[in-house]
Known about the structure:
Order of helices and strands: HHHHHEEHHHHHHHHHH
Distance between the termini: 67 Å
Number of strands: 2
Strand content: under 5%
Oligomer: single chain
Largest sheet: 2 strands, antiparallel
Strand order of the largest sheet: 1-2
Amino acid sequence: xxxxxxxxxxxxxxxxVVLGAILRFWNLGxxxxxxxxxxxxxxxxxxxxxxxGKDEWGKVFPLIFRAFGDxxxxxxxxxxxxxxxxxxxxxxxxxFISALSGIFAIPxxxxxxxxxxxxxxxxxxxxxxxxxxxxxxxxxxxxWHFFISRPALEANLALTLIIFGGYYLxxxxxxxxxxxxxVLLLGLSLHTYNTARVFVPLLVLVxxxxxRPPWRDRFMKNVYAIILAILFFGLVVFQVFVGEGTARxxxxxxxxxxxIFQIGEARTQSSFPPLVVRLVHNRPV
Length: 285
């Protein structure tokens, strides 16, 4: 009991993590009731990599998976090779990495919140609860996080990597040698989900502006981390210029070819006068 009282925050966290694991892994293969098309793509490509070292299009260990023409980033698929190898190709094995990421996010948000708000407490009636414990509880029961932790979603894996990457980045700013794990985790997130390729560079830039660490003293001691960061970001830049990195953007951007075609169709079918049609149905609008 003395040990539990002394380490009650971590004991409490352990209980919360177990609860989160039950919620995220219970009947995982059957709920949601069916695999969506992205999950099918993840599973088949992971199975193909496991058996042949190639994706479904015959490309050897690709850094971007063509899949159904949506060009998926690779990390989730490569990690899924492990549960597919252990448990066979099934709904459970395809969703395993996402559920596991959802569990790891719980201690991640605990550590990140404690670093951002040390010793901060929230009064709930006569009880005082540390904010890191409250954040862990809220993440466990959040319907939003619960939902994305059960299907195979790369965004969930990216979220967990960003949480831990942000935690180690804060440690680095507070004069602790944690730049290498931060670069590794944030760098991996860049190859997990496309949104991270926009969000993570902005997160790092804003953090540098806020904390302003001494460049010469701090960064010169982490040469390997700097080299790794250049490799991660350089690969993203290379993929963008090659074309595969922007394939998804080309399909989803506001003025995609399909949208431009729809504008032209709206013009031809409109009953308004020509001047009004041009004012209403055009690319700037």
